[in-house]
Each structure stands twice: as C-alpha cells, then as structure tokens.
C-alpha cells in the first residue's frame, strides 16, 4: 500500500464500509442482527444502572421514604437481571456466528478465486492482491474482517451517545437556586453554550489524537510488508514435510533467518517501530490521555458546583458524572471508529479490487449437448497466444481439427508451447488471436463449466488431496467403488491398492490422518490418471502422462492405452517418442508453431526434419 498517496475521503471510506457491511449481511444476516442486539444491551445496562442509582441516592439524600426506596431497588434488580440474561443469550448467539467469521471471510476470497478466470487467476497482479490481503489480515485483521468490528463500534457509540444525551439533558436545564448567590453565574445561558462547546472539544480531542497515532501504525503496516511476506513464506516453507530434507541438508533456516531479520521493523531500539513509538505513536497517545483527564476534571468541577448551588441532589451528581463520562467515551469511540473507517478503507479498496474482478470466461451461455456418440469436434482456427503478463507469442497461427476418436501425440522440445496449447484447448486461457470452435461455434459462447466437463486432463503438475484414495479418484465423497477400482486398475494402481491398509478408504499423506500412506511420484501419477479415467469425459488429455513412471509401468500404460482411451479423443504430450508410434497423428511443435504433422512412419523418414532429429537422439539410448 502506497502511503504517499492521498488519504481516502471520509465519504468514500464510509461507502466502502457500507458495501462491506452489506456483504457480511448477505453472507450471514444473523451475525449483523446479533451484533446490533448485543450492542444495544451492552450500552443500555450501565445507563439503566446510572438512572436507577440516581433515583435511590436522591431518595436517600432527601425524603428517605422506605416504600420509594424499595420500589427503586426492586426495579433496578428486575430490569438489570432481565437485561443481563438477555445480553448473555444474545452474546452466545453472536459468538456462535462470530466464531465463523474468519471462515466466512476466507470464503469471500475462495469463492472468488475459484470462479475467477484462470488466465486472470494466474497473473502476478492477482497473486499480489491476494497476498496483500492475507498479510494485512494476519498483521492486524484489517480489511473485510475489520468491517465487523467497526460496525460494532459504530452501533455501540451511536447508541451510547443517544443514551448519554438523554441522561445529561437535565444537567443544563436544572438551575442553581437563587439562595446561593456566589454560584448564580452558573445559570447564565452563555455559560451553558460555552460549556457545550468545551464538552464537544473535550470529547473530540482524545480520539483525534488516537487517530493521529493510528496513522503511524498504518505506515508501519506498509513498511513491514516485505518482512511479513518473508516471515509468512518461510514459516510456511519450514513446516512443509516435503521441504524438510532440503532445509536440513542446506541449512536453509540460516539464510531465511537473515532475510526475516533484515526486513523486520520491530527488532531493536533503532527499528522503525521503536522510532515511531518514541515519535508519533507515543506523543499522540500521551496527548490523548492528557486531554481525556483534563476533560474529566472539568466535568467533575462543573457538576459538583451546580449541586453545591442546589441545582440538584447528590443522586443526580452520580447520574450526570456517570452519563457525561460515558457519553464522552462513546463520542471518542465514534470518532475513533470513523477514523478507523478511513484507515481500513485503504485495505478494503484492495479487498474489493480483487472481489470485483470480472469473470469473463463465464459469460457464455450455450450448453454443450450431452452426446452419447461423443461426437464433439474441436477446431483451432489461426490461433496465436501470448500470456497476459508477457509480450511474446508462445503459440503462433495454429490451425488444426481434432478428428473424433483419434489419438494425437504432441512432441517438441521444452518450451515449444505444448502445455500452453493444451491450456487453450481446455480454455484455461482464451486465444489472443484466432478462435477455437466446438462443433463449429466459438467456445467462448458455451457455458464454461459445461465446456470444461468435456475434458479429463492429467497435467504434469497435477495435485492430489490428502484425503482417501477413493475420494481422490472420484473427486467426491460419494462414489461407485467398482468404477473407482476399475479406473485404478486401468492406471496400474491396483497392486498398490491391495497393499493399502484400508483399500479405497486409505488416506493419502499424513495431513489429516496419521495412518495416511506416503506414495511415490509414479504412484501419484497413476492415481491422477485414474481420476481422469473416472471422469470419463469425451476428451482425454495427458501431459507427459508417464514422466514419473518407471519403464515397466510406462510400458504397461501404453499396452493398455487403447483400452484406457477407448472411444475418446485422446491428446497426449510425450517426451518419449517411442510411445507416439501408436498414435494416429503426431504434431511436432517448435517455437510455438506446428512444424510437422503426420504418422510416425511418415515423419521418421523425413530425415532432415525435427521429428527424425528427436527420434534419432532418443533412439541412441534405447539401443
Ligand atoms: P512446453 O510444454 O512445450 O514445455 P510451455 O507451453 O510450458 O512449453 O511453454 C511455452 C512458453 O511459454 C515457454 O517459453 C514458457 O516460458 C512460456 N510460459 C509458460 N507459462 C507461462 C506463464 N504462465 N506466463 C508467461 N510465460 C509462460
């Protein structure tokens, strides 16, 4: 966050908070309702007590009628008890919903990230926004979470001000009796006006100074961002079991500690935090405390003088002092809350920038027909593409049509654009130029989820969940066991499954279950292939499907490849050209272009071309 930019106006801050409150209300209305009810009771109880105590003390100080005293005592007990019980009931309900607020808060972002266009999701800008939000939340809980607290503070302070005004009003209207001549000036209307202005000043100054000191905290938040980022990243990194070996082997803790300390703003007496504490933070906080004490002294003096002059009884002294101090406290809180809206608005802007990202990929409405004949034809028409953060075309002028039910292999050197081509096919990105058509219609016109459902993909960097094997394959808690077993059998995992203690119900890894099983990269790849088979989509895409498999397992997969793919259209990227021999067509990628295409036998004989070059290079190792 750039602290040099001008502060967000109060109006804009308030609008952002209103939007935040609305968002919370839409997600969980009960949270806001209970927040309001609790605020009402929290504020009402002390005022009710002040009011009744004044009645009792006035009676004691004046006529001392027993029945009046008993009446007020009973009223105090009954009303306070009822309010107290109500407050606890409401508090319990509020806590129940507030306990979920962190979870609900993450849901705002998880929902957004999941529905966001992948091409946007993968940009550094979005990554940076998400990181900033997380860091700010971890640092002091600012952002959308803070909206809840500010809402609560604003509710309470407004109610508190109303209550305070109600109980103090008669202080200004009650007059000093004419018998006490030396204090008669207290009745002068000008004095009442001056007092009123002084009271406003007295209540406004402490929060004003507190907000000034708060500005230094914000500066600190922005200046400690790098330190937080290093801290967060490395504390996460150190706890990951698969990083454990590297950490120990290369003593990575030492270098990380240096980075964290170098960027730490709290470390010693010369740190930024210490400087701010000696400067702005400390000075403004002291001024806030001093102005608050002076104001209290002044209230005591004025109320006591009026009581001395006979304007009211001793009971009312407690009422006015209690009510004014409470009123001042609520005014302070109100001003502070308004100040924090301005501070928090800077963070909220970032929150909303992320939440407001339009989801362009989701604009299509056509449904893809469910065809039992899997008659889906996809065609690339002059497609060129560059990644959103980059200026270079990584795919250039690609035109091709996928024949239904055919097996297509894609080969080419690293970085030639193979994976990018698959990403476009699955519409993780839209082409920069040209279009991709499904049954003759631009794929952008189709419902995105429907379109994605046409593909079963095993990406190179697939990820499995630390859940059971069955749940991983089915991507669902409910699944058909037989179908899952069949998929695992086809991908070559069945032998390992037989050795897993609880079969399909065995957990992978130990994140959620200490008895979870650790599997090798090859075994994980088999599960990922089974997951794609279970989905049973008309297009089967495998990106380096056998990269982590040993030669025997790889051979097994290829033996079964026709059976696995059955009537689906299959596209697979492979580095091992020997596995492409069985394909109907091979596409050779080079620097983002398809430079050769055809069957293995044709291509291998074009001796001066890329395919034959790659083939010859690999053949040496197989001989
Ligand atoms: P291959 O699968 O053939 O190894 P890729 O399709 O992964 O090649 O990459 C093609 C080119 O695109 C490479 O130069 C790579 O650096 C670049 N590239 C890949 N992913 C991104 C990305 N997210 N942003 C920018 N450039 C990328």
UniProtKB/TrEMBL annotation:
Pfam families xref list: ABC_tran (PF00005)
Intracellular or extracellular location(s): Cell membrane
InterPro entries: AAA+_ATPase (IPR003593), ABC1_TM_sf (IPR036640), ABC_transporter-like_ATP-bd (IPR003439), ABC_transporter-like_CS (IPR017871), P-loop_NTPase (IPR027417), Type_1_exporter (IPR039421)
Membrane topology term: Multi-pass membrane protein
Keyword Membrane belongs to the record: yes
Domain of life: Bacteria
GO molecular function terms noted in the UniProt entry: ATP binding; ATP hydrolysis activity; ATPase-coupled lipid transmembrane transporter activity
Limits of the ABC transporter domain: 378-616
GO cellular component: plasma membrane
Transmembrane feature ranges: 31-52, 154-176, 188-209, 282-302, 308-328
Protein name: ABC transporter ATP-binding protein
Keyword terms, alphabetized: ATP-binding, Membrane, Nucleotide-binding, Transmembrane, Transmembrane helix
């Amino acid at each position: 966050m750039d602290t040099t930019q001008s502060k967000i106006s109060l109006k804009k801050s308030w609008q952002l908070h209103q939007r935040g409150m609305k968002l919370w209300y839409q997600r969980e209305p009960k949270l806001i309702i209970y927040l309001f009810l609790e605020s009402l009771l929290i504020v009402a109880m002390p005022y009710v007590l002040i009011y009744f105590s004044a009645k009792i003390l006035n009676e004691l100080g004046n006529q001392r009628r027993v029945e009046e005293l008993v009446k007020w005592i009973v009223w105090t007990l009954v009303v306070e008890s009822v309010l107290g019980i109500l407050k606890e009931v409401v508090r319990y309900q509020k806590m129940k919903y507030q306990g979920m607020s962190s979870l609900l808060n993450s849901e705002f972002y998880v929902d957004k990230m999941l529905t966001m266009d992948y091409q946007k999701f993968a940009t550094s800008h979005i990554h940076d926004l998400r990181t900033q939000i997380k860091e700010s939340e971890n640092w002091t809980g600012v952002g959308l979470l803070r909206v809840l607290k500010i809402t609560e503070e604003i509710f309470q302070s407004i109610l508190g001000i109303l209550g305070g005004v109600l109980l103090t009003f008669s202080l200004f209207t009650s007059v000093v009796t004419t018998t006490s001549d030396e204090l008669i000036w207290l009745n002068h209307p000008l004095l009442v006006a001056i007092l009123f202005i002084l009271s406003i000043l007295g209540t406004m100054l402490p929060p004003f100074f507190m907000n000034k000191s708060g500005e230094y905290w914000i500066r600190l938040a922005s200046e400690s961002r790098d330190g937080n980022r290093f801290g967060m990243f490395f504390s996460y990194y150190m706890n990951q079991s698969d990083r454990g070996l590297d950490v120990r082997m290369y003593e990575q803790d030492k270098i990380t500690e240096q980075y964290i300390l170098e960027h730490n703003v709290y470390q010693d007496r010369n740190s930024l935090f210490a400087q701010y504490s000696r400067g702005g933070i400390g000075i403004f906080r002291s001024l806030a405390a001093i102005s608050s004490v002076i104001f209290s002294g002044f209230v005591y003096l004025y109320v006591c003088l009026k009581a001395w002059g006979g304007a009211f009884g001793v009971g009312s002294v407690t009422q006015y002092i209690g009510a004014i101090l409470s009123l001042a406290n609520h005014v302070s809180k109100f001003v502070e809350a308004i100040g924090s809206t301005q501070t928090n608005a800077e963070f909220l802007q970032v929150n909303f920038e992320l939440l407001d990202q339009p989801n362009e990929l989701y604009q299509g409405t056509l449904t893809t027909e469910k065809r039992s004949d899997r008659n889906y034809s996809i065609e690339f028409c002059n497609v060129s593409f560059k990644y959103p953060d980059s200026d270079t075309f990584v795919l250039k002028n690609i035109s091709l049509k996928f024949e239904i039910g055919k097996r297509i292999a894609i080969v080419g050197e690293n970085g030639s654009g193979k994976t990018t081509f698959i990403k476009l096919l699955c519409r993780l990105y839209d082409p920069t130029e040209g279009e991709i058509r499904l049954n003759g219609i631009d794929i952008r016109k189709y419902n995105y989820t429907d379109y994605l459902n046409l593909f079963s993909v095993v990406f190179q960097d697939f990820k499995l969940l630390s859940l059971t094997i069955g749940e991983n394959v089915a991507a669902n808690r409910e699944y058909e066991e037989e179908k899952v077993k069949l998929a695992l059998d086809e991908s070559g995992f069945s032998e390992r499954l037989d050795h897993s203690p609880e079969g399909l119900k065995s957990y992978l890894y130990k994140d959620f279950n200490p008895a979870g099983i650790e599997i090798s990269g090859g075994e994980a790849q088999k599960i990922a292939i089974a997951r794609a088979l279970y989905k049973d989509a008309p297009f089967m895409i495998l990106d380096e499907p056998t990269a982590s498999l040993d030669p025997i397992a790889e051979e097994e997969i290829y033996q079964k490849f026709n059976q696995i793919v059955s009537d689906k259209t299959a596209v697979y990227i492979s580095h091992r050209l020997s596995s492409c021999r069985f394909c109907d067509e091979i596409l050779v990628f080079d620097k983002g272009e398809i430079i050769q295409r055809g069957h293995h036998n044709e291509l291998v004989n074009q001796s001066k071309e890329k395919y034959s070059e790659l083939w010859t290079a690999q053949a040496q190792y197989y001989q």
